[in-house]
Amino acid sequence: MSTVTAMTQITTAHEVRLTAHGRPGLERFRIVETPVPVPGPGQVLVRNRYLAMRAAMGLLMAGGEPTMPAYRPGEAMWGPAVGEVVAGDWTPGILVAHDLGWREYALLEAAGVRELPELADPVAHLAQAETAYAGLVEAARLRPGDTVFVSSAAGSIGTMAGQIARLKGAGRVVGSAGSAAKVAWLVGELGFDAAFDHHEEALAERLREVAPEGVDVYFDNVGGEQLVAAIEVANPGARMALCGALAGQTGRTGQGLATVDTRALIAKRISLRGFTARDHPGLGREEIAGWLRDGRLTVPVTRFAGLREAPRALLELLDGRHTGTVIVEL
What we know:
The protein is an alpha/beta fold. The protein has 2 domains: 3-126 and 299-329, Quinone Oxidoreductase, Chain A, domain 1 (Alpha-Beta Complex); 138-279, NAD(P)-binding Rossmann-like Domain (Rossmann fold), CATH 3.40.50. The protein has helices at residues 3-7, 56-62, 129-139, 156-167, 180-188, 203-210, 224-233, 246-249, 262-268, 285-294, 310-318; strands at 12-18, 29-35, 43-52, 81-88, 95-98, 105-109, 114-115, 147-150, 172-177, 194-197, 215-220, 234-242, 271-274, 301-305, 325-329. It is globular, with a radius of gyration of 20 Å.
């Protein structure tokens, strides 16, 4: 039975709601049954197939994020999703990307929905490759031969940044991760030249060991002491793309926030640029799709099955248990 035919027999669905702000834990989630929405003029109904978990969701649950609205207790959570149009103004069966995850069915304004090109694995659309591309190419102005350091390199964005840096001509790519197993995986499976565990002491010394000729580009997913170390090891004229601040978002990295030495920034003529993928919509999309089709860019994925597994998937992501993009399949 097709999805479109089957959905005509479904009147209720499920969504995940936040119970209260605070430190993320299973007690903060509630799964509720709701009526399946009915699309009106200019709307589409989407059956979600894949939900992406993001580290920033931990901060949204806690109630604080300057660039995004926090989740509201009693309301459905939201996040990146890929689904199939089943009713409304668009042709049923079209695969689309949107931000109303954490639910089985999403009612969307047709004008804000993006149709997705066909890929062997639709999960690749949730891998944050465009974010990594924008940071390296636009924010950090990556040059052929650069030594690139990626923090949180085993995560969703970091795995993309390391590979794209290589594809765009980096001479050496190094990364940090949260365990010896992840470090070995980055080098053995993902093609990093070297990596180190960020829980070790003397981070600048460890970074200098894996990047003996200094760092030209730093793709920063963490902030904190890793940013301090990158500045210390940076070459004159280094460019740093500030993408995330995990050290202050989850409170679980052990690094905390840190003070940056502005004198070093001036003396080395280092540039720091914060960015988001929203600043550069579509940048690199065609090139990324080509890499995915020919297998030069791979998408490491950790998969969970069913909406009821979504809370556990997020909590384990926040605890640093997984590599790549964490996905819930519905």
